Amino acid sequence: MQNNSKFKIPEEAFDWYDAYAHGMMDRREFMDRLATLAVGGVTLAMLTGALMPDYAQAEQVSFNDEAIKATYATFPSPDGYGEGRGYLVQPSSLTEGQKAPAVLVVHENRGLNPYVKDVARRLAKAGYLAFAPDALYTLGGYPGNDDEGRAMQSSLDRSKIEADFIAAARYLKSHALSSGKLGVVGFCFGGYISNFLAASLPNDINAAVPYYGTPPRNDIVGNVKGPLMGHLAGLDERVNSSWAPYEEVLKANGVKYDKYVYEGVNHGFHNDSTGRYDEKAAELSWERTLNFFAENLKS
């Protein structure tokens, strides 16, 4: 999905949406600020329509695609919320006895929405066993809209969510269809979890790809072994500022990593369901991601 609006969304609108999406601004303040930009034929409805996700227009791989098989699977998480559940997608080409490299797909701070499920299908179509857990499973799962999902996720214990994703990674690595090679890719909160897992499970994660994700905690950041590939948005000062000290640790420890900054694009540029989507940056970053996974998981 590209932003086909006939008006240019002011940059401050993206900044306000980012603050709203990450809990630094409530909905009333966000809408009040947007209203100040509704001038010259641009309405508030046009602005919100361009900024809010439209998942119906974002599907790249249909769940009916004959190249994949999609289902749901649960996994034990004794240190988290007891049990987790996720969207499991495999290549249809796998025959009995065959295995595939696996990739854990981690959603943003609002649960397993349709965009992230589509990313899992894209990976399965590329030959991976993909698993996308839903941090909101203990609350009934992604509720169908991001606002409610964001509120639900913020109500959960962060340490238990992290434990759930550790359990999900271990479940996927040992899955009967997994080759034992495990990658992780995540977006925003999921980018943080990708970095977190690289530090928490350095011997299990064979390749980590955080999209605009902050580093692991200081007490574990030194555990990262890599390889790692980070994708950052040029306009995302909040996340980008956290990478300088992260890189110092990675370099000091001799970690193999790549960092790509896509100039002139916003946090969330890979999400093709919103106005933040940048087709050129999204496609280039995804090509790099697939090449990175092929090099580290398929060889």
Q: Would you identify the regions where 5 or more consecutive residues have pLDDT less than 50?
A: 1-5
Q: Can you tell me the CATH topology of the largest domain? A: Rossmann fold
Ends distance: 33 Å
Beta-strand content bin = 15-25%
What is the radius of gyration? 19 Å
Shape: globular
DSSP strand count = 8
Percentage of helical residues? 25-40%
Q: What class would the helix/strand composition place it in?
A: alpha/beta
Write the H/E string, N to C. HHHEEEHEHHEHEEHHEH
Which CATH architecture of the largest domain? 3-Layer(aba) Sandwich
Can you list the strand order of the major beta sheet? 1-2-4-3-5-6-7-8
Descriptive overview:
This protein is of the alpha/beta class. The protein has 2 domains: about 10-50, no CATH class; about 60-295, Alpha/Beta hydrolase fold, catalytic domain (Rossmann fold). The protein is built from 10 helices and 8 strands. It has helices at about 10-20, 25-35, 45-50, 115-125, 145-155, 160-175, 190-200, 235-240, 245-250, 280-295, and strands at about 70-75, 80-90, 100-105, 130-135, 180-185, 205-210, 230-235, 255-260. It has an 8-stranded mixed sheet. Helix 1 (about 10-20) runs antiparallel to helix 2 (about 25-35) and helix 6 (about 160-175) crosses helix 7 (about 190-200). The chain is globular and about 60 Å long. The model is unreliable at about 1-5 (pLDDT under 50).
